[in-house]
Amino acid sequence: MTESPIIPLPDLPELGALPRKSTFAVQVGNVLVGGGRPVVVQSMTNTDTTDVKGTADQIAQLWRAGSEMVRITVNTVEAAQAVPQIAERLAMMNVDVPIIGDFHYNGHQLLTAVPECAQALAKYRINPGNVGFGKKKDTQFATLIEKAIEYGKPVRIGANWGSLDQALAQVLMDENAASANPKDAGAVLREALIRSALDSAYKAVEIGLPKDRIILSAKVSGVQELIAVYRELATRSDFALHLGLTEAGIGSKGIVASSAALAVLLQEGIGDTIRISLTPEPGQSRTAEVIVAQELLQTMGLRAFTPMVTACPGCGRTTSTFFQELAQKVQQHVRDKMPEWRITHPGAENLTLAVMGCVVNGPGESRHADIGISLPGTGEAPTAPVFENGEKTVTLRGEAIADEFVELIDRYVERRWSPQA
């Protein structure tokens, strides 16, 4: 038999995202955005801002879940008056998170009428599509920017597909219609969205707002449209960029759509902050969008927030649900412990765990994790070997495997990441 020729191993591409696009660094409260800093996770409350306790409590929940900035609606004088009270309540709760004010239509009036609100917020979000209309647009936009300058605050200029500057869109549509090679309407509207954000940003700079106090976003609800818009936006400016698929949807649809769009952009080095705009399922915590954003960044290897569990999906060899229950218990345990570990055991967020259901891949996957367990599949001996740093350390048996494995995880974290270690 003739042996197959040995084919040299080709040069393989290096793992990891492309280098981050260089953008201006923007200070938002105690968080630095852009300038090569790690991608920041943002979220937004859905409470009535005039409900000071309810809004402060939800901000605290989002912060404890890992949101590094939280946006709130500021739409009335009463809401604006509530902002400093919310900030004071958060300080009493030892919650130090930048609060972003979301302004539409009347932001210029609210920041002028309630200076305490203008001072308490860490950033203002302005939508150029509804900051004003007709002759009032420029003066009202200028007032918002002047207030940001007066109080030393950064601004996110956030254009949105659903509230596009119609005057600009009409001008571009007319120019396109008169062109010798007109583009399709979708391309023109994408350009209108990009121009809306960029033109507003440069107008803010003309008024006197430094470039390192401006963050841009241009959100749409379609995956391919979002990727196209941000690729173009990233090539045409060095402003820090906030990523998010607007009105992403509910449940798995919203998670999949947001992840599909943002993963492509993040892999290309585009984006300085992200939000996963999920519609909460009935009874579901608002923190779900924070967890999805963290898991997206962590699974891509861009950041580490909490230990992640590798677990097999199950098959005919794993007819018991025990490995599923253990995987869920372990994931919840480390997530619950992470707020404490972040302070007492820095670095524990990089812990890797494996909960496997049978002998096929169980020992191998467990050896690859910092600490892993290979549970017995159907018909296998009722033993569960545990591996730490690639070496088998103990075999668990009996009814208390779950509790014993969680204890082993805690001891591993203590040995590896305690200050004494």
Structure write-up:
It is built from 13 helices and 17 strands. It is an alpha/beta fold. The chain has an 8-stranded parallel β-barrel, surrounded by 5 helices. Strands 13-14-15-16-17 form a 5-stranded mixed sheet, sandwiched between helices. Strands 1-2 form a two-stranded antiparallel ribbon. The model has no long low-confidence stretch (mean pLDDT 94).
In short:
The chain has helices at 52-65, 77-92, 107-113, 115-120, 136-151, 166-178, 185-207, 223-235, 251-267, 288-299, 322-344, 362-368, 401-417; strands at 26-28, 31-33, 40-44, 69-73, 99-103, 123-126, 155-160, 214-219, 240-243, 249-250, 273-274, 278-279, 308-311, 352-356, 371-374, 384-388, 391-396. It is α/β, with parallel strands linked by helices. It catalyses: (2E)-4-hydroxy-3-methylbut-2-enyl diphosphate + oxidized [flavodoxin] + H2O + 2 H(+) = 2-C-methyl-D-erythritol 2,4-cyclic diphosphate + reduced [flavodoxin].
Task: Summarize model confidence as the mean pLDDT.
Answer: 94
Report strand %.
15-25%
Radius of gyration equals: 25 Å
Measured between the Cα atoms of the first and last residue, the distance is 58 Å
Domain IspG C-terminal: 309-410
Cofactor: [4Fe-4S] cluster
Pathway: Isoprenoid biosynthesis; isopentenyl diphosphate biosynthesis via DXP pathway; isopentenyl diphosphate from 1-deoxy-D-xylulose 5-phosphate: step 5/6
InterPro entries: Dihydropteroate_synth-like_sf (IPR011005), IspG_bac (IPR016425), IspG_bac-typ (IPR004588), IspG_C (IPR058579), IspG_TIM (IPR058578), NO2/SO3_Rdtase_4Fe4S_sf (IPR045854)
